[in-house]
Amino acid sequence: MNWPRLRNEVTQWLLKGTATACLLGVILLTDSACHKPQAGPPADFRFAYAQPDCAPNDAAALDFYFTAKKSECGKYSEPFIKISIWRSLPKSVPYSMNVSGHDGAAVRCLRPAACETATSGSLHLGTFIDGNSSTGEYELHFKDGSIEKGRFNATWCYVKFICG
Questions:
Q1: Could you say which DSSP state residue 113 is in?
Q2: What is the pLDDT of residues 27-83, one digit of tens each?
Q3: CA 137 to CA 148: how far, in whole Å?
Q4: Model's pTM, two decimal places?
Q5: DSSP state of 123
Q6: What kind and span of H or E run contains 111?
Q7: What is the C-alpha radius of gyration for the chain, rounded to an integer number of angstroms?
Q8: Residue 82, by phi and psi: left (phi above 0), alpha (psi -120 to 50) or beta?
Q9: Where are the domains of the chain?
């Protein structure tokens, strides 16, 4: 048996296999890094709820929840959007607020423990009767470039809370 020749053939075979495996790895890793996985169809936030709450400074606040399915007041499950007004609460209409972090904020929660804060956006109220009814529209922009927007007619909810 010609050991040097056999050793040379085995070495070439191993090098070709290793090179092929490395090339496949690079192709697969590059492909997965360049393409965003599909998260499924976007949620349809057709149900709207308004409820009083507390701001981060323990003052009165107003929250709007937008959900994909009908919910019990105060018990919202993902996916949902929450827009909180912390300052200059609406007293009359038309009312508009920019989601800036000073007057309020907005988050989108598509899965449990997976919420993201809107980078910008607005909330406009066309009708507002405190504790009774509210209609309007919102538009929110997120870090990934996606936009959530819609019109709403909010159901008012009364939940127990104590601020301060």
A1: T
A2: 333 333 433 333 445 678 999 999 999 999 999 999 999 999 999 999 999 999 999
A3: 11
A4: 0.73
A5: E
A6: strand 104-111
A7: 26
A8: beta
A9: 1-31, 47-156
CB atoms within 10 A of CB 23: 10
Between the alpha carbon of residue 130 and those of residues 5, 36, 68, 153, 161, the distances in Å are: 90, 43, 24, 13, 17
- What is the Cα–Cα distance from 64 to 43, expressed in whole angstroms? 17
DSSP tag of 105: E
3-state secondary structure 33-87: HHCCCCCCCCCCCCEEEEEEEECCCCCEEEEEEEECCCCECCECCCCEEEEEECC
Distances 32 to 27, 29, 42, 138 between C-alpha atoms, Å: 9, 5, 21, 34
Distance separating alpha carbons of residues 164 and 116, to the nearest angstrom = 26
